[in-house]
């Protein structure tokens, strides 16, 4: 019974010493490496995140500036139209019922409109409203299916009501929100600019309205140079509805829409960054939030006040977190493999070193158990103890053998 207990103690001792030494070696070697790796990874992640966010912010600012400048030019075009002699001198005649020169005035104004439509290339339709808001002259692009009609009452449209309030200001020019042209029918989305017309005497005689071709805005948003494969920019309205189409076919692939154009002013975006920008009325940077596809994205969300209605837009610049931090993730994986390799190497070396140190102790423990059981046949000169070398363990082992021999001699005598 005692022999079995001693054997268990022997096995436990042998396992315990080697295990402890091996663990010590691993801790001494791995802890600093792991600590450095974790610190480096966190620092690198923070640095890359900051750089990416600054890049997204810069892209957003550049596009916001380009868009604001472009809309300013559109307002300038409209204002310039009101100052042309043809419009300023003939608008009153064109808008006055029964005026003898009415037909000729309308023809000249429409000829000018048609010419400008071709020259500018950025408008779908140009309209002249009389002082009461009725259409008296118009020109539109061939194939434009939402054109207006002569005599149509547009006095409830924002592009009439806002300028009419400011009709005494000869320099006033209005830019609408990007919105449904008809809030009831909701058949198409439009953005317009309009400007008041004054004759040579300074009297208010009408309003010129331009329906803006928004292809430039979509083109600007779809230009994702510098944003990798997953990056995109787009525009939302003051509620978070799409104003430009997505770069990805997510909605079509999911069967939610037949065409991405159907998402405009229909699909609401609930991305945290967008809603936070609208709520705080300020630009927002997000290192990670879930986008409309359910994917974690890093983004900048620019709060814009461009239109004359005081309704904000949000210009979004986003990129998938996985792509934004791809370099960091790759380096992290490499670091993990380095730690694993070092752990394996240290384990092998640690085992060899631990075995070298623990084997003599285990042998000494075995002999000590025999001596405790009355076996005094061991001496310090045989190979049973493996007492080679001059280190402390070897000296202790030989001394134990010598002690055993002396005890045996004393008992024998």
Automatic annotation (TrEMBL):
PROSITE patterns: HAMP
Ranges in a coiled coil: none
Residue span, HAMP domain: 355-412
InterPro entries: HAMP_dom (IPR003660)
Record GO biological process: signal transduction
Keywords: Membrane, Transmembrane, Transmembrane helix
Any matching Pfam family: HAMP
Gene Ontology, cellular component aspect: membrane
Bilayer-crossing regions: 21-42, 334-354
Record protein name field: HAMP domain-containing protein
Protein's organism: marine sediment metagenome
Source organism phylogeny: unclassified sequences, metagenomes, ecological metagenomes
């Amino acid at each position: 019974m005692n022999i079995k207990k001693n054997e268990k103690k022997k096995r436990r001792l042998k396992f315990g010493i080697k295990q402890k030494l091996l663990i010590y070696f691993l801790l001494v070697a791995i802890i600093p490496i792991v600590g450095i790796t974790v610190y480096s990874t966190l620092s690198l992640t923070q640095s890359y995140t900051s750089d990416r966010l600054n890049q997204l912010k810069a892209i957003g600012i550049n596009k916001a500036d380009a868009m604001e400048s472009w809309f300013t030019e559109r307002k300038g075009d409209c204002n310039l139209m009101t100052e042309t002699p043809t419009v300023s001198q003939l608008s009153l005649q064109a808008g006055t019922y029964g005026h003898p020169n009415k037909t000729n005035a309308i023809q000249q104004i429409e000829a000018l409109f048609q010419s400008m439509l071709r020259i500018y290339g950025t408008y779908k339709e140009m309209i002249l409203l009389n002082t009461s808001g009725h259409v008296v002259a118009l020109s539109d692009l061939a194939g434009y299916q939402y054109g207006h009609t002569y005599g149509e009452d547009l006095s409830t449209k924002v592009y009439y009501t806002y300028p009419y309030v400011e009709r005494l200001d000869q320099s006033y020019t209005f830019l609408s929100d990007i919105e449904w042209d008809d809030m009831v029918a909701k058949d198409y989305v439009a953005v317009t600019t309009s400007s008041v017309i004054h004759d040579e005497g300074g009297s208010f005689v009408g309003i010129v309205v331009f329906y803006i071709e928004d292809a430039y805005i979509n083109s600007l948003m779809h230009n994702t140079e510098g944003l990798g494969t997953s990056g995109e920019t787009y525009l939302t309205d003051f509620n978070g509805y799409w104003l430009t189409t997505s770069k990805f076919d997510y909605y079509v692939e999911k069967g939610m829409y037949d065409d991405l154009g159907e998402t405009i002013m229909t699909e609401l975006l609930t991305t945290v960054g967008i809603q936070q920008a609208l709520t705080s009325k300020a630009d927002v940077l997000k290192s990670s939030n879930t986008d409309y596809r359910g994917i974690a994205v890093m983004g900048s969300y620019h709060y814009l006040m461009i239109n004359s209605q005081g309704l904000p837009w949000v210009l979004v610049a986003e990129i998938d977190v996985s792509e934004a931090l791809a370099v960091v993730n790759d380096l992290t994986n490499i670091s993990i493999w380095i730690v694993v390799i070092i752990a394996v190497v240290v384990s092998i070396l640690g085992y060899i070193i631990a075995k070298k140190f623990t084997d003599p102790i285990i042998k000494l423990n075995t002999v000590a158990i025999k001596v405790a059981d009355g076996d005094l046949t061991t001496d310090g000169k045989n190979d049973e103890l493996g007492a080679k070398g001059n280190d402390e363990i070897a000296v202790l082992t030989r001394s134990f053998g010598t002690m055993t021999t002396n005890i045996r001699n004393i008992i024998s005598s």
